Amino acid sequence: MKDALPLTGGWTLRLPDSPLGGGRVPAQVPGCVHTDLLAAGLIPDPFLDDNEVGLSWIGRTDWRYDTELAPRTTGHERTDLVFDGLDTVAEIRVGSTVVGTTRNMHRGYRFDVTGLLAADAPTPLSVLFTSAYAEADAVREKLGDRPNSYPEPFHLLRKMACNFGWDWGPTLVTAGIWRQARVEHWSTARLARVTPQVTVEDGTGRVRLDLDLERTPGGEGRRLTVLARVGAARAAEAHAESTADGANAETTTAEARAETTADGAAASLTVEVPDPELWWPRGYGQQPLYDCEITLLDGDRELDRWTRRVGFRTVALDTGADEHGSAFTLVVNGEPVFARGVNWIPDDALVTRVTAERYRTRLRQAADAGVDLVRVWGGGIYESEDFYDACDELGLLVWQDFLFACAAYPEEQPLRGEVEAEARENVTRLAPHPSLVLWNGNNENLWAFRDWGWEGELAGDSWGEGYYLGLLPRVVAETDPTRPYWAGSPWSGSWDHHPNDPDHGTAHSWDVWNRLDHTEYRTQIPRFLAEFGFQAPPAYATLRRALSDTPLAPDSPGMLHHQKAGDGNGKLARGLAHHFNEAVDFDAWHYLTQVNQARAIATGIEHWRSHWPRCAGTVVWQLNDCWPVTSWAAIDGDGHLKPLYHELRRLYADRLLTVQPRDGGLVAAVVNQSAEPWTGHAVLRRIAVDGTVLAQERLPFGCAARAVATLPVPGSAAPAEGSAKELLVVEADGTRAFWFPARDKDFAYPVPRWDLSVATTGAGAEVTVTARTLVRDLLLQADRLAPGARTDTGLVTLLPGESATIAVHDWAADGSPEAAVEKALFCVNSAQKTIG
């Protein structure tokens, strides 16, 4: 049997003579230079103030990691040194022998070190990292430069692009042994690669297993046996926490087996599972997972074993032509899905700090917000197994980008070979996961070639098209034909249409954030919106932890440093000016920008969901942050939930009411993504600012499962266009929608008044606010009560006489809790200056 010995302890990091003065410090593996220097107290936290700037030298320095390998053992024919991830350009030495070099962060490496280990003493192991900038310079010298969106050379080597900074991330160019390292001893043969292809047809599940075998000289030509077993299905909760559908027991599907023999370097076998339990996205069914195991035998002697979990489901991408253009609809188990999505970036700029628990927390938050699709964006990494395991268990569909973003990528060597090796390895690695439903070639590069001036600048040089339209679809077709491939996002399906044509394929919408009012989202109905977003600062507690600015201001030094978007604050200001008067102070500005972010996303999602099935998905940019920053995220870099997060819970709920302008009049759209019809009566009330009901209508409706119904708003219930003194409220089965006919700065908000009570609970309090006037977008910022305090409620609009009870967790409500809560409560009525 193969023996694997992890290399996790005993590592040291050699310090450069300048600026750290030489010497060594303990090193963590997996880890990186930044985390090791932080642990040693040699550098300040790069996430605080502008410390990032003073640490730029780290990425331009060569580094060395050292440890010792245990003495040689007997009983095995072969010894391999294995690295699952090296960041990025490295030379590996065992004793005085260079056993290999690397130049790709996104793949693993295996080196034969048989005979290099001493028999009676440890053998030195060194990993020497060359600066990523030096490698990029060498590639530029050989191939010439290529255009990109940022003044950093991330496109000239296979490394996490956002290491070099982004419009939401710091420039922290890492180096290190960033994934597991180990020594493996084995004999005769091993399972070098296992690629499962899981299909369902005519009620039978099939797992085809394609195997690559590596043999020692003594094992060549030897007839070996391969056993494959797919065990009884177990619901996801048996592996982790419960799903939204409550699956919690084993199913009755019996295990299935297959056997074959192999005397060469490859083998294939298929396991059939009659009547498998299907894996579904959350909200559509359960997520049963099957244990899949392969054993490689030499007679009765076990040589190697591979185990994963698989799920049975079908996935297709409907791109058929229709009267609106061409569709882009994911179809799972024959069921068309409106994708309620979020974009995912690395959850920490120093990615080795992201644990399995942290992945699960963040993805559980996504699921709790109604999300059913997570797009892994192409400027980050292929995430760890922990990420995809959590998605399998939570029923979150995964759209996986290949790692190309916002740049022209050379297609010549040495990059082309690395790209193909990286693609084949990661397609194989992720193939078992039922959550993975789409491979996407790149982020914005096809669009950029057409619209960002690249074509003329490149003057015929390669830029990546051969990857996206040639190499990558071929790798997917050969390795993972059970899943669809799409060449890029945005992409219309061919050069016959503009790459970002909203009527064809996937679209990105950034005109709103960059230059337009968010009401302009209503002017288009894209077939699938894969990126759109609006910025807001992080939570107040996050700002106070990360910045020493006194006082805080939108343009104070720390705030500006932690705003990475070009003219980001200017765009925030212009976005506010469309709707609000000037904020009364910084706290009000902070609140209003968060309100405007939530409002912008709500405007888009409500409009696009109301046009299902023409529009088949929205993927918000973005779920998470990688450090404390003003950004498009719903969850900030310290893990605090912005108002946008809570708004997503409403927007992505199975049932949604929304008021939409259509053809010169208003309609109430009843959006039903649940599995059951939604029938009932909608109550429409035209209400004056003081709470007086001016008109009321009760309209019956019936909406089929996974469908949308629209109700024209009767003229009696419709507020006059531009009216500053009345609004429309629509309610049905506990859901509610508002329509304000005038902008906030033009609306006659009363001075807000409310009654407040605070009742302590075991680990927090319940805050009850009873409105005495109309109160628009009331928000309790719990982190102002205590940095770790949190609430389960976002923006709430109350009519006169209505109450809202807000649970606050992790807060010791002692002293004068009402006074503290008053200071943490905000609403639109009082946050903007009164004009005139």
What's the topology here?
Elements: E1 3-6, E2 12-14, E3 24-26, H1 33-39, H2 51-54, E4 63-69, E5 78-83, E6 89-94, E7 97-103, E8 109-112, E9 123-130, H3 132-143, E10 164-166, E11 169-171, E12 181-186, E13 189-201, E14 204-215, E15 224-234, E16 256-262, E17 266-274, E18 289-298, E19 301-310, E20 315-318, E21 321-322, E22 325-326, E23 329-332, E24 335-337, E25 339-344, H4 356-368, E26 373-376, H5 385-394, E27 397-401, H6 415-430, E28 436-440, H7 445-451, H8 454-458, H9 465-479, E29 485-486, E30 507-509, H10 511-515, E31 529-532, H11 540-546, H12 557-561, H13 568-577, H14 586-609, E32 617-620, H15 643-651, E33 655-662, E34 665-672, E35 678-688, E36 693-703, E37 707-712, E38 726-732, E39 735-739, E40 754-761, E41 764-771, E42 775-780, E43 790-791, E44 796-798, E45 803-809, H16 817-824, E46 825-826, H17 828-831
Parallel strand pairs: 25-26, 25-32, 26-27, 27-28, 28-29, 30-31
Antiparallel strand pairs: 1-12, 2-3, 2-4, 4-9, 5-8, 5-12, 6-7, 6-9, 10-11, 13-14, 14-17, 15-16, 15-18, 18-19, 20-23, 21-22, 23-24, 33-34, 34-37, 35-36, 35-38, 38-39, 40-41, 41-45, 42-44, 42-46, 43-45
